[in-house]
Specification:
With 376 residues, this protein is an alpha+beta fold. It folds into 2 domains: 5-25 and 32-186 and 352-375, no CATH class; 189-345, Rossmann fold (3-Layer(aba) Sandwich). It has helices at residues 37-51, 55-62, 64-67, 164-167, 175-185, 220-231, 235-244, 279-291, 314-325, 337-345; strands at residues 5-13, 16-22, 26-30, 79-87, 94-103, 117-125, 132-138, 141-145, 151-153, 188-190, 205-206, 249-254, 257-264, 267-273, 299-303, 329-333, 350-357, 360-363. Strands 2-1-4-5-6-7-8-9 form an 8-stranded antiparallel β-sheet, with helices on one face. Strands 10-15-16-3-17-18 form a 6-stranded mixed β-sheet, with helices on both faces. Strands 11, 12, 13 and 14 form a 4-stranded antiparallel β-sheet that branches. Helix 1 packs antiparallel against helix 2 (55-62) and helix 7 (235-244) packs antiparallel against helix 9. The longest helix is centred in the N-terminal third of the chain and has 15 residues, at 37-51. It is globular, with a radius of gyration of 22 Å.
């Protein structure tokens, strides 16, 4: 079991001075260059990094000094605070909330003077009559409730840059912690589906069942083959490809390796290998693999999927995104008004405009408590 995400908060990260967003099945974000759309996307990636125990390393690669909110702030040290709230499947009520806070190490603390340190972590169960802290971390001190509901101090070899969420892997003793970690690790982010000559999308891959597209698309051929050979149903995939490229046919092929070719009506006696396809065609196929796979992840985030695509492909791309949102949650950041409006015209999802005010990223109509004025 994995959990639907219902809310997301970020404070002190890049242009995200303070933002609290209520998640839906399909959230679409449009806005001008430089308003911070990608920072919203990246903050969600950092929550997954907390579950993978790579949050400190990821922020170090960004350089913590650059990742911190650069605008004015009140009293207290500079910190990045991220949180996500989850519900039980089939419910809209919050059941769990995970929070993590990262900042600079203490002065004179050692050789890694700019290493991001995890200051606090908190996992709260919200599904009962009152909130219950399932895990609490303050510096090196870690407390958690075991499977009997008893609060215990946890002895764990924990570096300051590591997260309890990523390190404390004992599902039988701490089932709530394990459930939230597995949920976050199942999220997928698709923003680097390369289409250059050495792109993984262009290469054959191991011929093994692939229910979900890898983040880099390296198993795309196996994803198509899984639909053809295991589900034995490529009707929706074929329809999307025909809508995008009228008369074209995708041909999944399985031998020692999985690969695929495409045929086009203007070349009836020729099949084109993945290595021969145009960047736009290949990128559309990669997105089709992400959005139409045999088993979708519980949360898919797409960052500017329209790159390299002809404007005429926005309508079929919108259809794939809307269809995917009926099976999972989708978060879309786009520069394409055409794509956003095509999704909006379907009557599905929420299209939001991202703006920047006094250097801080916000969303039109969003209040500080995470509601929209047009919903009130």
């Amino acid at each position: 079991m994995v959990l639907p995400v219902r809310e997301f908060s970020a404070r002190g990260y890049r242009s995200l001075q303070r933002i609290h967003y209520p998640m839906s099945r399909l959230d679409v974000f449009v806005g001008a260059n430089g308003v911070g759309k990608s920072n919203l996307y990246r903050a969600l990636e950092l929550l997954r990094a907390a579950a993978a125990n790579s949050l400190g390393a990821d922020l170090a690669r960004e350089r913590l000094k650059l990742a911190l909110w650069a605008g004015p702030r009140g009293q207290g040290p500079a910190r990045i605070r991220l949180s996500a709230g989850f519900s039980e499947p089939g419910s809209s009520e919050l059941a769990y909330r995970y929070e993590v806070e990262v900042g600079y190490p203490p002065c004179g603390s050692g050789a890694f003077s700019s290493e991001p340190h995890v200051k606090t972590e908190l996992l709260t169960y919200l599904g009962g009559s009152r909130p219950v802290r399932l895990m609490e971390r303050d510096g090196a001190m870690v407390r958690a409730r075991d499977d009997n509901g008893r609060p215990v101090e946890v002895e764990i070899d924990l570096l300051a840059s590591e997260t309890v969420l990523g390190r404390l892997q004992d599902p039988s003793r701490f089932p709530g912690l394990d459930l939230v970690r597995r949920t976050l690790l199942a999220w997928r982010f698709y923003h680097s589906l390369r289409t250059d000559a050495d792109s993984p999308l262009r290469k054959p891959c191991v011929a093994v069942a692939a229910p979900t597209l890898a983040s880099d698309g390296a198993n795309l051929a196996a994803v198509f083959a899984t639909l053809a050979e295991i589900r034995q149903d490529t009707l929706e995939l074929d329809r999307s490809i025909d809508r995008a490229f009228p008369g074209a046919v995708l041909n999944p092929l399985i031998g020692d390796l999985a690969r695929f070719t495409m045929s086009f009506p203007e070349f009836p006696h020729r099949e084109f290998e993945a290595s021969e396809l145009s960047d736009g065609t290949l990128r559309f196929l990669g997105l089709a693999g992400a959005l139409m796979a045999y088993r979708l992840p519980p949360f898919i985030a797409l960052n500017e999927p329209e790159s390299s695509l002809h404007p005429d492909l926005m309508a079929p791309l919108a259809e794939m995104i809307v269809d995917a949102a009926r099976r999972t949650q989708v978060w879309l950041v786009t520069h394409s008004e055409r794509l956003a409006r095509a999704i909006e015209a379907s009557g599905e999802g929420a299209v939001r405009t991202v703006v920047k005010r006094e250097g801080a990223t916000t969303i039109e109509g969003l209040t500080l408590i995470g509601t929209f004025r047009d919903d009130d």
